[in-house]
Q: What sequence folds into this?
C-alpha cells in the first residue's frame, strides 16, 4: 500500500511510519514540526533527545534498506496538502497530525483557538484533498476516548441505537468531552461522518485511550530511531509522570482523589490497531469507529503499580494528592466497549509488572535528565 503518515515526526507517527515501511509499504511522512515548536514555547523537552526527522529517515534507510519519503508543511495550508495528495496518491492516510494535549488547549483563549483551528482545519483539508485526488482512499483518523467523557451509561463503540417515542435510529454516541482539545476531535468526527454520508468517503475513527511505552520492533534498533517520552504537565501522560517521579525519589502527584478511570494501551498495540484498520478497510461511504484501548485503570491503580515497581527496584515513593487542576468527575461509572479491534485480530499487550519494570528501568537510566520543575501542573481548567 501507499501510506501517508500525517504527523509522522511525532510520538506515535514515527514508529507507525517505520512499521509500515518495514513490512514493505511505500511510506510518506508529513509534518511541520509544530510539536518541536510547542515544546520550545513551553520550555519542556522529552526525557531523551529525539533526532531530527532527516536523521531518523537516514538511519532507518541504513538499518532497514528502506526509504521513507518526507514532506514538510502545514496541514492547515490546503495548497501544500493538495500537492502532497496529488503527487503521492495514497491508498491509506494515517492522520496523527494534530495538537494532542488537553492542558495545552486549556491554557488560554489563544491556545484553545489555535488547537481547534489546527486540528479541525487540518482535518478538513485532508478530507477535501482525498475527495479531489484519491476518493477511494481510506482515512484512518486518530481520535480519543476522552471525546466521550464519563457518561453514567456504558460507552458504545462510536454509535448508539436509540428508541425515541416508539421510533428507532442509529446516531453518533453523544459526547461530553473534557477540554477544548477533546472538543476538536469531536468536531473532526462530526465532519468525517458527514463526508462519509454525503460524499461516500471511507474513514475509520480510532477513539484511542492513553498510550504508554516507547519500544516497538523498530524503535529499539538504533538510538536515532527512538520515539519521544514526555513526563511534563503539558504533553506528559500520567504513567510517564509517575515513572519519572519514582526514578528521582519524588512523591507521585495524583490529581484529586485519583479514582478517575480511563482506557490505556501499549504503543505496540497502537501500531497493531492502525495496521489492522489499514488492512481491513471499511466499505466506501462507511464511517467506522473503534474504541482503541486494551485496559481500564484509575489514576490510583497506576500509582499503585508504579509504587510496587519502585519497591522491586529498591526505590521508595509515596503518593501526594494535589488539588485537581482539571474540572472532571472523580467518582464515576466507566465501562467502555472495545471489541471491534479484537474482532479484527488485535492481541493486547497488557500492562504487566514486567512491562512497568522495564519502563521504570528505562527512565532510571536517564534520571539525571529529569526536570522536576515540570511535575507540578501549571494549567487550571477554571480560575477560581
Ligand atoms: N499519545 C496518546 O496517548 C494519544 C492518545 C489518544 C489520541 N492521540 C492522538 O494521536 C495523534 C498523535 O499523538 P502523539 O502523541 O503522537 O502526538 P505528537 O504531538 O507527538 O504528534 C503529532 C505530530 O503532528 C504534527 N502536527 C501537528 N499539527 C500539524 C499540522 N498542522 N501540520 C503538520 N503536522 C502537524 C506535530 O508536529 C507532531 O509531530 C494525535 O492526534 C493525538 O491527539 C494520542
A:
Amino acid at each position: 500500500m501507499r501510506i501517508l503518515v500525517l504527523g509522522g515526526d511525532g510520538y506515535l507517527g514515527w514508529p507507525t511510519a517505520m512499521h509500515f515501511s518495514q513490512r514493505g509499504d511505500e511510506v510518506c511522512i508529513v509534518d511541520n514540526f509544530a510539536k518541536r515548536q510547542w515544546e520550545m514555547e513551553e520550555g519542556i523537552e522529552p526525557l531523551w533527545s529525539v533526532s531530527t526527522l532527516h536523521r531518523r529517515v537516514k538511519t532507518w534507510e541504513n538499518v532497514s534498506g528502506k526509504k521513507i519519503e518526507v514532506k514538510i508543511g502545514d496541514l492547515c495550508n490546503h495548497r501544500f496538502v493538495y500537492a502532497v495528495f496529488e503527487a503521492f496518491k495514497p491508498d491509506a492516510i494515517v492522520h496523527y497530525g494534530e495538537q494532542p494535549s488537553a492542558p495545552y488547549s486549556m491554557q488560554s483563549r489563544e491556545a484553545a483557538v489555535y488547537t481547534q483551528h489546527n486540528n479541525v482545519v487540518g482535518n478538513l483539508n485532508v478530507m477535501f484533498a482525498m475527495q479531489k485526488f484519491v476518493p477511494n482512499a481510506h482515512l484512518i483518523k486518530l481520535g480519543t476516548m476522552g471525546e466521550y467523557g464519563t457518561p453514567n451509561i456504558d460507552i458504545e463503540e462510536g454509535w448508539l441505537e436509540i428508541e425515541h417515542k416508539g421510533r428507532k435510529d442509529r446516531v453518533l454516541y453523544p459526547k461530553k468531552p473534557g477540554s477544548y482539545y477533546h472538543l476538536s476531535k469531536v468536531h473532526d468526527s462530526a465532519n468525517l461522518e458527514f463526508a462519509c454520508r454525503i460524499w461516500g468517503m471511507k474513514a475509520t475513527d480510532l477513539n484511542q485511550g492513553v498510550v504508554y511505552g516507547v519500544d516497538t520492533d523498530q524503535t529499539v534498533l538504533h538510538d536515532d530511531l527512538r520515539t519521544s517520552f514526555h513526563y511534563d504537565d503539558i504533553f506528559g501522560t500520567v504513567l510517564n509522570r509517575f515513572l519519572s517521579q519514582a526514578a528521582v525519589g519524588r512523591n507521585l502527584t495524583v490529581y484529586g482523589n485519583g479514582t478517575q478511570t480511563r482506557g490505556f494501551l501499549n504503543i505496540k498495540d497502537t501500531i497493531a490497531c492502525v495496521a489492522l484498520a489499514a488492512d481491513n478497510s471499511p466499505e466506501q461511504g462507511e464511517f467506522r469507529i473503534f474504541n482503541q484501548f486494551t485496559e481500564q485503570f484509575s489514576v490510583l491503580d497506576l500509582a499503585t503499580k508504579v509504587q510496587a515497581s519502585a519497591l522491586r527496584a529498591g526505590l521508595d515513593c509515596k503518593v501526594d494528592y494535589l488539588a485537581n487542576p482539571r474540572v472532571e468527575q472523580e467518582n464515576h461509572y466507566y465501562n467502555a466497549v472495545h471489541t471491534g479491534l479484537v474482532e479484527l485480530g488485535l492481541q493486547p499487550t497488557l500492562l504487566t509488572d514486567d512491562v512497568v519494570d522495564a519502563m521504570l528501568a528505562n527512565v532510571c537510566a536517564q534520571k539525571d535528565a529529569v526536570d522536576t520543575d515540570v511535575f507540578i501542573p501549571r494549567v487550571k481548567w477554571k480560575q477560581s
Observations:
- The domain at 2-374 is CATH 3.40.50.720 (Rossmann fold).
